[in-house]
Amino acid sequence: PDGGFLAVNTGGSVSKINPDNSLVWIRNWDSSQNWALHVSGEYFYLAGDTRLSFPDYETQSTYATSIAKFRWDNGNHDPSFLVQGAGIRGIATQSNNKVILVGDCSTLNGQPASRVARFNEDGTRDNNFSVNLNFVAYTVKALDSDDILIGGYFS
Questions:
Q1: Nearest to 18 by CA among 29, 34, 7
Q2: What's the pLDDT at 101?
Q3: How far apart are CA 82 and CA 142, in angstroms?
Q4: What pTM was estimated for this model as a whole?
Q5: Per-residue pLDDT tens over the stretch 116-144
Q6: What spatial distance separates the first Cα and last Cα of the chain, rounded to whole Å?
Q7: What residues are paired with 116 via a beta bridge?
Q8: Could you please report the per-residue DSSP string of 96-128?
Q9: Which one, out of 26, 78, 98, 121, has a CA that is 20 to 30 A from the CA of 129?
Q10: How far is C-alpha 155 from the chain's CA centre?
């Protein structure tokens, strides 16, 4: 949103860099791998392999989750969105701020997910959305029309 960009280390860190290459902030999280990153407006979403364990710099609490939402400007966690589940490979947001997650996931937040699920802004499952894939999805793109494109190894 401000011309900066995020640098993601697969070992669990994310840094925000200004256009002049100066460092704005860096956040280190306990994750053996970061699998998916998606920037949407003033926020970004990050998915870890099976968990992200990170400090919340505003509340001094520690969170453990699989997919979380953070503020673009300071990298702080937004606790309004927490989703549990492993194997997320792609994240997209639609114009209504619903979040699409794809990957090799069979459950998300304890509910069945056939490799694709949609969540509301508050992290609750959108039960009006149902897509079933027979194998792993690697990427997702929300179009301006709110249609979605999913890429992966499925038929």
A1: 7
A2: 92
A3: 20
A4: 0.83
A5: 999 998 889 999 998 889 898 999 999 99
A6: 36
A7: 102
A8: T--EEEEES-SEETTEE-SSEEEE-TTS-B-TT
A9: 78
A10: 25
Residue reference for tokens 């699998």: 35
Looking up tokens 């953070």 gives 70
β-partners of residue 148 are 142
Tokens standing for residue 57: 């710099």
Long-range contact pairs involving 64-71 (C-beta distance under 8 Å, separation at least 24): 67/36, 67/91, 67/101, 69/43, 69/44, 69/45, 70/14, 70/27, 70/43, 70/44, 70/45, 70/46, 71/42, 71/43
Please report which confidence band the pLDDT of residue 31 belongs to, taking 50, 70 and 90 as the band edges: low
